[in-house]
Hints:
alpha+beta; 3-stranded antiparallel beta sheet; 11 helices
Amino acid sequence: MLDILFYTVLNMSITATAIGVILLIVKLFMKVIRYFFKISIPRKAIYALWVIVLIRLMLPFSFSSKLSVFNFFKAQIKKVVSVPVSIIQHDMELSASNCIGAAKQYFPLEYKTEYLDTIFTVGAIIWVAGVIVIGVFALIMYYATSKRLNKSVLIKQVDFLEDFPTLKNNSHLKLYASDVVTSPMIFGFIKPRIIIPMKLVELIKNNSNSRKDDSLSKKEASQLHNLYRSLGYAIVHELVHIKSKDNIWKVLSSLVVILHWFNPFIWWFKSIADRDMELACDEGVISILSEKQRKEYASALVELSAKRQHILSIAFGEKVVKLRIVNILNYKSITRITLITAIIIFIALFAILITNP
């Protein structure tokens, strides 16, 4: 039974790898268009393309279609396995692409030789062991982090953010403070919380009291202003993540990586997808900012990126800070034509990459 599951997962992994490489080629083409023709392609559309890879890594079956890109690679796909009619509706045709071709029949699966049977049985044991080890490690890390962050304190008064323009309409905003984090971050799956460093909150409150007493020097007042600014933009950044449900992506993509741990391409794709997620989030933030505020946001990104500590943070901590700043400063509003074109391209790519031959 385990060898059949491993055989299925391995096929899914190979197919998803091919799709991931195709998407990287498409991204390179989009980058060339952006550079030479100065066309601003929505970062959210580029980020959304990774959903195709995610679906391929999670579902063993897909619809058969003449539009499938795999129709051009029939030599590499040994056989397209049709799902028995009893499993699906008669007017639907589902199939699984078989890139391995080690079986002589399916439902039930029977290998061509006993040697192949042994290989996949041993491989299945190693695969399951890897899933268990990595999965248990991830659960321990999450539990330990959750236990520490659950002690976060709800900040009852967030009046120190009243002057921040983009937060005026978020009266329901709830912030938590913790000594564990060194930069603002999101934690939680069903009800994500924004957690900011306790030291940062205490510093702001103390300086705010001093500001009311006019006991701050010009330098101290300037530092306090920068602190307000950085924290405010960081919170807006996290709010965009929450609105985009990026925390769900992080969980699903992590589960997929654990399932396909043996494939280095999947780890690579996840790192690229996470970077695209950050670029899409930045675009969501700067789309509501003025030109001056965009420059302030870029400065805040530099300041807070140096303070990143925790691996679960999805905000100001990527190594691609330079790329993100360039994108922020070179941001151009998305035109309606560009948006419609991006949607059409996404639908077309979804149709040809999600389907089987």
